[in-house]
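Obj.: predict assembly geometry.
Materials: sequence records (below).
Method: joint structure prediction, all chains together.
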Amino acid sequence: MKRKMLWGSATASYQCEGAWDLDEKVESMWDRYLHENGLENGDVASDHYHHYEEDIRMMAEGGQNAYRFSLSWPRIIRDLEGNVNEKGLAFYDTLIDTCHRYHIEPFVTIYHWDLPQYLEDIGGWQNIETAYHFEKYCETVFRHFNGKVRFWSTFNEPKWFIFSGYMSGNYPPCHRNIPEVIRGSYNVMFASALGVRKFREMKTEGEIGLVASYQTIYGLDESTETLNAMRHADNYCNNWQVDTACLGEFPSDMVDKLKEQGYDLSFAKEEELQIIRENTVDFIGINYYSPMYVKPYTEGETLVKTNNQGKNYKGDLRSVVKGWFEVANDDMKDIVPHNPWGMFVYPQGLYDALTRVSSYVKQPIYVTENGYGAYEEISEDIDDQYRIDYIREHIRYMLKAKEDGVDVNGYFVWSPFDLYSWKNGCEKRYGLVAVDFDNDCRRIPKHSYYWNKSNIENDFIDLRKEEKQMRNIVLVCNGGMSTSILANRIKELGGDGVEVNAYGEQEYSQHLKDADVVLIGPQIRYLIDDIRKRVGENVPVASIEPRVYGAMNAQKVLEMVDELLKDSK
Ligand code: BG6
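Observations (raw structure tokens):
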């Protein structure tokens, strides 16, 4: 089926609506936790509850044709008996009608982390009953909004709210307990399958998916130990969401690993696993912001830290998953650019994520979140060039993946306007439009808003053209870390005009097809004839001089590339 490309932006109920106790909304676990602990909260947030009309109009005027937002469960279902708050449904009716009026496709997330407190009181995601409550909540919203919404997602990022709630302990209920991480993850994936089953039983119009948080995994070298660590990290970060939703199975090597480590998985009943198997999703949403670098596990108990105070980033976020892998982000922080919260900016990670997922998953893909968080002063003229750069490069890689055959059908910027960024508070701003939180939440479009508008209207033609002119340099070397350092240096110097990919001796052959030029590390120059044969006579191949390679002299390499390309014309 040919799908219309969706160009939109995304929010979540708790992060933007405000109106935390208006119109009979009940308390969520986030309301309780932030109020009790005296932390910055989303009581008002961006006051989208009262500004939705202006926000949706600005999306439409900004060229967007889709809006991804979530329904607030505690606004809709009052209690454990499942009594419905008609005022809550009415708010979303108006929101959805407004989307339609502005020709904006509503892309609805059913759960984006704001669990009703009455469910947290019975054990929240540790209690399988919460999954059945979710199913009933789904039934209510499918019945009520059927025909008005074509795209539904059961959950936003199971990994992030479960791991933050039960492993890092920085989100409510703030536990640090591995068996709870496992149980919660299972219960959420089961709840998602129940939601999908209900959707189909009720013959709801449209499609239903799940939105996964995705961190593309890279290793520091190519040793077997690192490759094993990468596989564990991929299971940990990505596969248990994507595989389970799309293929109906938890990754079997992950399950084996957990058993081998002595975790009790006997809670998983065959009839539940059958429901997971039979109710896979129609599409998968990928939220990509940053990659993760990993190295083999050495020692220590599981400890996962999150940086919620960007200003204090000192690179001391050593995280370990016992027996699985260690996070190596600190090793890369001087090499790969990152924002003040230590989130790496690595646009090619989106290409790698999309091609990887589509290599084994048949469902269409949507990029459901991608964006750049920054501290920003509010004024009438907010020049957020860094956000433009970030979005442009990620879209470039998404379009490249599409051209290379990935079935990707939409891109949603996080976020259309500034909102409450969970434990980072409101000062971590992601919006295309600024919200002046101190002045009645006044909206002020940033430069990125206008950039995004003109590019959507242009169908990103300029970007597609630039893509064609980009030089694709393939480095084949036997070193791991040093090669990636050189690759990054070349990229930094070459700016937008070069793409550099580094491959080891074992894996280079399949990556040569799009190369404009191939450079070989001095240690393995004996591969030159083989590579020449594979790429054909139009692609120059040369080996980097040991002096240049050893000194990581990116400038010299770029000059060499220019020479080679000039000669080959
Ligand atoms: C995603 C979530 O993980 O990333 C959003 O779906 C979140 O809810 C976004 O806000 C950015 O993360 P953060 O922590 O910087 O707000």
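Conclusions so far: Residues 12, 15, 156-157, 160, 213, 287, 369, 373, 414, 421-422, 424, 428 surround 6-O-phosphono-beta-D-glucopyranose (CB under 6 Å).
To do: check interface contacts against the pulldown list.
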